[in-house]
## 1
Amino acid sequence: MKTFSKQERLSSVKDIETLFKKGKSLFVFPLKVIFISSKTQQHTKEKEIISSPRLLISVSKRNFKRAVDRNRIKRQIREGYRLQKSEFDLSHIDTFAFVCVAKEHLDSAFLHKRIKRLLQMLEKEK
């Protein structure tokens, strides 16, 4: 199903801190992905079982001063992930984040290709 529901978004401050402290990373310009696999994640409290991993998208204010520019890139990344997530088995990933490191605007088609490449790399990280 090609949706991106609220349950798939990573919003807990504690989980975000854990992700950036303990997560592994992969890089394909212009995106860096930081992830925690289900095996390494310790659940201290019972959480809802979600079939797909939780995602955070980050665009640096240093590289894109205007909020409209940051929001546009986040929308492009979110759409690329939404359209392609069903093609990959990411059940072994608990949480992950896409961090955009580009300093200029990018074409959606280019971003979607890079997202696909990162999802392929994530799928192999079992």
## 2
Amino acid sequence: MSKMIFVNLPVTDLAKSMAFYEALGFTNNPQFTNENAAAMAWSDEIVVMLLTHDFWKTFTSKAIPNAKESAQVLLCVSMDSREAVDAIVGDAKRAGGAPDPTPTQDHGFMYGRSFEDPDGHIWETMWMDPKVAAGEMPVEHIEA
């Protein structure tokens, strides 16, 4: 089995969350989906597991933070272009998410925006010039 990442997110409305992620291009894997959880594949290596609060609580006794009021993580995925970054943020807004809860970043060689899902989980989306990412072109100056 190749290395994979499973991002587990507590959600208040499983059906609504599934519809949101499907609108962004995630694919549901019905083999790992039931009334408590849904496996939403972003790629062959990245799967978002949407878990109802009751099911989430079977994994940990820690409190579920309200992601609309606090942030425990910022999830970030790379995109193929600046236009793809803008497109997924637009898709998120149309699907009921909140666009740009964090500042847009535009460093020329790197561009990023973000969105919140219906439960307030923040997803950053970014594009980086492939030549910079591969080390073929130096970054002379990165603004903090």
## 3
Amino acid sequence: MAETRKMEGLRTRLTALRRMLASMAGLIGSDYATKEQAWEMLEGLFNPLAHALTATAITIVAWHNWHAYGSLASVPAAIIVIGTFAIRLAFVRRFHRRGPDARVSDWVRRFASSSFIAALGWGSSLSILLYTTEGATRFAVFALISAPIQGASARAYAMPGVVILHISIVLGMISVTATAFGVTVAIPLALLYLWYQVGFVSELFTLRTRMLKADHDNRALLGQVTRYNADLAVMNARLSTFALTDGLTGVSNRRNFDEKLRQNLQDQPMHAASLALLLIDVDHFKRFNDNFGHLVGDECLKLVAAAIRSVERADDFTARYGGEEFALILPATTRADALMVAERVRLAVAAMDCSALPNPARGLTVSIGVGIAVANANIQPRTLLEAADSALYLAKQSGRNCVRDGMASGQQLQQIA
């Protein structure tokens, strides 16, 4: 049972290793990472700090050999590592000077090239150092060998395949040198160390992939929620429009009219012109319905609404007040202008083309009552409606198909014939 679990664990690790090595052509999570995340990973990959520290350590050991033993044999190691570091800095400068049109894939390939050069540089310089170092300093060299390897492993969160290749080159060159030097255990130790690093890199690969996928899923979910919210906002706007619109005529309904009138009277500035309200009633509409039917009557109401809208100004507000009655709010409008607009509405309705209706007996006309709310009078909606309604009643008494008006105030209601 225990052996079975070990074999399953080994297979799991090998599967993760295959997936990791398959990512050598690009960055980890290329299917999930954003462009910004890709550039951030490349920024970390090109960071020269680990290379600078390793080059400094190798140079110090070479200087120590010359100073302590008078040996110049380690100087080539310092020259190679300084040259390798200079090449690395050249890549870093080019990376930081990249233009806005730079492509991630191009810089992935350039990093892979620079990593291969660095691996050859570190491997050859450390091999020379190992071969030319004597005494206790050799132990420092063995410790130093782990520096570029650990530095490379730390970058496995971005390009694990390139990292493993880098580590393999360095360990391979060092183990061959150590074996030639007489340390026959170097190759098996290097293989064990490589296996340890592969396991470490594999764990980093798995964790990084999960993190990028989780971030990708979160972004996708956020985008989906954002789209749903946008769709919901559109639907709410449509529902709000439907709730405030008369389904037959397409103009605003009574509910919307009541709110609009209240708001206009409340917001009317102290120094503004008066506000006018037109109540428009279709003459003899009950008789029309009885003669031609409700369907024809509905079509007539649509035509009346369209005629009113054709006269409507930019800030005016048209609504179906109820049945065959319409209302038109005229903000900042004097009595003379309100009567002029009302007359235009009457003429527009009288001139409607009713030829498309089935057998209309005659054209339609409207009677209009105009209520005027003078500025600075603190008029309530009900008072203005009573003024307009009284004026409409007067228009009906005057023979219909005409306009009459009334003045609303807080104390009295005047009707002007």
## 4
Amino acid sequence: MKFEIEFSGHENIRSNHQKTLEITKESHLTQQGDCIIGVNATSSCFDLPEELKNKLKSDDTQVTFSIKVNDQEFVVQGKGDPKLTLTHLEDIVIRKSDFTCPRTLSVKCDKASDSLPREMVKQLQDPTTKGIFTITVN
């Protein structure tokens, strides 16, 4: 199963958090949001299809995230977790840890926002840049 979320860049994207990566439906971003890689996302945790949410709520689930910006692609591997609630109305956060909250989409991920290629980050600092965040579960 595959689900795509479109998002936009923002001049304050820093993408240097070592434990999380986030996209948000909100349009504003301060420099403190150092895990955020995109704004104006078309979906949050709350908006995901029920079938996808059900798969994500299993610790047997392997999740692949693909972030495409122009001709670049960044891939993250993560896991599902029975503790996920997937109810946040604005945000999606993927985490290296096993911490869960309403914003958490996946845990035990192999990368965070600080791993994003710096050329991709530079492109995402342009508000006209569009990206696609794809969630794939088997």
